[in-house]
Amino acid sequence: xxxxxxxxxxxxxxxxxxxxxxxxxxxxxxxxxxxxxxxxxxxxxxxxxxxxxxxxxxxxxxxxxxxxxxxxxxxxxxxxxxxxxxxxxxxxxxxxxxxxxxxxxxxxxxxxxxxxxxxxxxxxxxxxxxxxxxxxxxxxxxxxxxxxxxxxxxxxxxxxxxxxxxxxxxxxxxxxxxxxxxxxxxxxxxxxxxxxxxxxxxxxxxxxxxxxxxxxxxxxxxxxxxxxxxxxxxxxxxxxxxxxxxxxxxxxxxxxxxxxxxxxxxxxxxxxxxxxxxxxxxxxxxxxxxx
Length: 291
Hints:
Layout: H1 5-12, H2 18-29, H3 31-35, H4 39-46, H5 50-59, H6 65-86, H7 99-120, H8 123-135, E1 139-142, H9 145-160, E2 165-166, H10 171-179, E3 186-190, H11 197-208, E4 212-217, H12 223-226, E5 230-233, H13 243-266, H14 268-283
Parallel strand pairs: 1-2, 1-3, 3-4, 4-5
């Protein structure tokens, strides 16, 4: 399913030329204002020319500004309806927001991010990744920062159903792990921007060793995606107080869950046995079981 214009702009922003990127940022900052603007007014907003606006529209998949503005108007209308249903006036968090406002806005962003990620996810890519992981001799998962937490989650899930999976935290250990992969292995790199050095280096090395490589990123044209055989794309949105960093993690965790369940289904009998064995093994650590 095709992404709406705002999702597409966020994903393609890093690939645009500087003048085109300024136009995209103007649109993302105030989509409703741009809907009401002429091509001349948008060019003035972005400090560029009408011809550059036309080139920008073509770069993001439209014949010209009228078609772009129609799509933008539809996306803006949908967003207004979503905000109204969520009981919030606008999505950005500001310094005067109450605790209720903050909770409502973050819940709105994170729920919307999961819905958009699920709706726009390439299911053929998901199936290819799941099939490869289910049959892999070992899986390496690489990321740092908040994306590293996603890596730890995936490694824990896959390990619990009997797959050999590691998610090293140290960048040198990530490279060591990647260097030992082979054609029977899978390497997964996780980065919201797709420009983080560590997962890119690890995935590149794993690919050189013959492993199937999978990227989980918000930007399908990013450097990380370029070294991946399979790309699983999230649709998180950056906001003023870095709730984008929160929603990017939520989107990544959703993708990890999609992947894990499809892998588990392919190993149904082994999964059931492994889950029971691991559940039983930790029961003795529960306080209410001690006598």
